[in-house]
Every structure is written in structure tokens, then in C-alpha cells.
Specification:
Elements: E1 6-13, E2 31-39, H1 40-43, E3 52-54, E4 57-72, H2 76-79, E5 101-103, E6 113-115, E7 125-129, E8 138-142, H3 146-152, E9 155-164
Parallel strand pairs: 4-8, 5-7
Antiparallel strand pairs: 1-2, 3-4, 4-9, 5-8, 6-7, 6-9
Length: 177
């Protein structure tokens, strides 16, 4: 079976030992050495600062939306009778370490990827849920406890919607569990 092409990612480093460098002597010239090999399709995105990674695939910003962002918890106080720990896409609320989003599927499809200022340290989070009050330009971010969700409050924010940069289609989130 032929191997996939690889690209070599290089870093500048210098090897300094007591025998090669003395106090007061100029530092030796750094040399270039291979530190890691990546498949060519991964290395193609290495120089693009706008590209990030989600689910092992490269993603890039697609658009910004201004949204009203509230928060919820997976208990009865937020979810009422549907507080069974399972999202609308049949994922556990523990998916992604309790960091996921509920959105209006008419605006943001299930599986959409977002970054929301102030939520999950700016990491990309998936849309895996919806809610009765979540219509149009509204989002609900998940927190593991009702108290944490209440701390979030209500915020009007610009969120970034991400898309896969590798040209492959997005997976159906109902198939991934």
C-alpha cells in the first residue's frame, strides 16, 4: 500500500554543551532540524493563521453573526421535563466536556461550529441542541450546573461560525455519538 505524502515541519534549534559554548562566547548558530512529520493535507494549512482544528480537521472562519446568548444547564430548572441528559442530536450533554450550544436549526444546522466570546476559553464548540425559546439569532450555551448558567446571564455578542477548510463535507452529528 503506498504511503501518503508527508511534509516536514522544521524548527530552528541549537545544541549547546559546555564543550561547544563557553561563558562570554557568542551563541552557536541555530541549525534547522526536522521535528515532526505531518500528512501533506495537514501541512497545507500550517502557514495559515486563520485555520484552526476541530474534530481532527482544519476549519476556518466563515462568517460572523450577532446573537443574543443565554445559558442553560441539563437539569429540570432549564430543560423541564426533557432533562434526560440527551441533546436534540442524541448526544450526551457531557459531550465536549459540557461545552456545546443550542441554536435554531433553521439558522445554524446541527453540527455547526462556533466560537463565542467568553465561553469555553474561545475554543470552537458544536451546535448539538435546540430549545423551544431558541429562535432566530439566539443561542443557549450549556453549563454543567444551573448556578453557572445563571452567572452567564444574557449577552449580545458577535460569534464566529466556522467551516471545514479541507473541502470535505461536514458529518451528520446524529450519526456521531
Amino acid at each position: 500500500m503506498p504511503q501518503a505524502p508527508v511534509a516536514r515541519v522544521q524548527a530552528r534549534s541549537a545544541v549547546v554543551t559546555p564543550a561547544t559554548w563557553a561563558v562570554g562566547a557568542p551563541e552557536p548558530e541555530p541549525r534547522v532540524e526536522v521535528v515532526e512529520e505531518y500528512p501533506a493535507e495537514v501541512a497545507a494549512f500550517a502557514g495559515d493563521a486563520s485555520v484552526r482544528w476541530f474534530n481532527g480537521r482544519p476549519v476556518r472562519p466563515a462568517r460572523e453573526l450577532t446573537m443574543v446568548v443565554t445559558a442553560y444547564s441539563p437539569d429540570e430548572r432549564s430543560c423541564g421535563e426533557s432533562a434526560d441528559g440527551i441533546t436534540a442530536t442524541l448526544h450526551s450533554v457531557e459531550t465536549n466536556d459540557f461545552c456545546l450550544v443550542a441554536a435554531d436549526p433553521a439558522l445554524l444546522r446541527y453540527g455547526s461550529m462556533l466560537t463565542i466570546p467568553g465561553y469555553d476559553e474561545g475554543r470552537i464548540v458544536p451546535v448539538l441542541d435546540c430549545g423551544g425559546a431558541i429562535k432566530g439569532h439566539r443561542l443557549d450555551v450549556l453549563y454543567p450546573t444551573h448556578e453557572k448558567a445563571r452567572e452567564w446571564g444574557r449577552r449580545k455578542l458577535k460569534v464566529v461560525v466556522w467551516e471545514y477548510a479541507d473541502g470535505l463535507p461536514a458529518e451528520n452529528p446524529r450519526r456521531e455519538r
